[in-house]
Structures are given as structure tokens and as C-alpha cells.
Amino acid sequence: MLHAKIIDSSKEKIDILKAEKFLSSSNFGAIIYFVGTVRGINENKKVIGITYDSRDTMVIKSFEEIYKESESKLKIKDKAVFIEHIKGYLDVKEKSIIIGVGCRHRDEAYNLSRFIIEEIKKRTPVWKKEHYSNEESEWLKGVSIQL
To answer: What is the fold, at CATH topology level, of the domain defined by 2-138?
Structure first.
């Protein structure tokens, strides 16, 4: 079971309660949440915010592929995964991504959560433009689109 969505930061925020509701099941003995937030320092630069941009259909496709790959690579049968990623501007400390996983056992949940975030970072087309306190900004190196 997978929930995958891109959230427009000008219209809504990431809400952990939605993930909690989606993952609620008596089948799961372990539920883990990973929440990525905008940090205030990167490479010795004071960050005041980040703009995230993405090709939404490609991001959702990537999330779906990562979920499917987790089945063959991790062999976890009974699971649920909730992924939401922001698109748009966020201030420091705001949530940019949430990954929630529900599994029967904690070892499965930790492995699945780690697998998903690492694969998203490697291959999902989401780009970040950092905004700095000195009024400069720059796009960070990201994942290229694979056509």
C-alpha cells in the first residue's frame, strides 16, 4: 500500500497526522516517520529558505518505482508507505518531506525507511534552490532527468 503526493507549499503543509491515519493498522508492530526539514546552515552559508522544484509526474513515478523495488530487494511482504514531498518555498525548520512506513517488525521498518530516503535522494528529480542571508541564492546539484 502506497500513498505518494507532491504538496504545493503555497496551499498546504506536510501534516504528520495524515501519515499517521494512513499507516494505522493492527497488522503493524512498527511505524517509523522520517521528516526532512530545511536546515539553517549548508556549506558554511546561512540559509534562510529553500525553493523546491520538481516534475511532479516523474517524482510520483520515481516514488512508485522505489516502492516496487523495495519489495524485491527487502522482501517485506506486509507494509504501507506514505511519502509526501514539498514543491515551492519553505523557511528554515519547515518540513520538506515525510516518509512514513508501517511494517510488522521494527527491523523491517528501519530498513524500509532508510532504503526509501536513500533512493529518493539518489534518483528522484527534485531540485533545491537555497536562499541565503546575504540575499544571494543558488540551485544545488540535483538529480538529472532521465528520459
So the answer is: Aldehyde Oxidoreductase; domain 3 (3.90.1170)
Q: What cell was used for 85?
A: 514531498
Cα–Cα dist 90/88, whole Å: 7
Query: Nearest Cα to 3, choosing from 80, 77, 82, 59?
Result: 82
The C-alpha cell of 137 is what?
541564492
Q: Which of 91, 88, 100, 84 is nearest to 37 (CA)?
A: 91
Summarize the confidence of residues 17-45 as an average pLDDT. 93
Indicate if the pLDDT at residue 140 is higher than 60: yes
Residues with Cβ within 8 Å of residue 114, at least 6 apart in sequence: none
Residue with cell 515551492: 88
pLDDT for position 147: 45
Q: What pLDDT is recorded for position 86?
A: 96
Tens-place pLDDT, residues 78-124: 999 999 999 999 999 999 999 999 999 999 999 999 999 999 999 99
Position 87: which residue type? Answer: K
String of DSSP letters for 69-110: HHHHHH---SEEEEEEEEEEEEETT-EEEEEEEEESSHHHHH
